[in-house]
Amino acid sequence: MWGEPYERAGREMADYRVETTRNGYRDWIARNERGAEVRMAAADDESAQPSFTPVELLLAAMGGCSGMVLDRTARAVDHDDLAITIESVSTPEDEGRIGRIRVTYELDIPADANNGKAAEVFARGVRLTHEQFCTVSRTVEHGARVEAILPDGSVGFEG
């Protein structure tokens, strides 16, 4: 619970922490230390709406991370009207995974903006977002080790 150290018996400190608690059958609330909450539930459960599915939150995290990085990497281009749409667009070989994610950036960049260089600057910002700076996108692209810690402190899964 909050207030407990991020570190557990010989494990390194966590960079981020979100607690997820059960609200009901297939209905969960995720909270961070700053008091933000988001509800997660099955899309087909009418009684648990409005909510996000866990996959929708993954996609939302990519969009939010990409947008925040672009605020830095493409700051020379006015992008107040930028919309980022993230979609899972294919079925993977195994059912428990997303096969491909499409990130679409929608922005009207006038041809004469910044002496015609605005589109180039924005494209560079998008490239840097995914190549270097968006932690979420880079983690999805390259994978991360996952370990599941059981209530007794033992490792129930590593992969």
TrEMBL record:
It comes from the Bacteria. It holds the Pfam family OsmC. InterPro entries: KH_dom-like_a/b (IPR015946), OsmC/Ohr_fam (IPR003718), OsmC/Ohrsf (IPR036102). This is Uncharacterized OsmC-related protein. It comes from Streptomyces indicus.
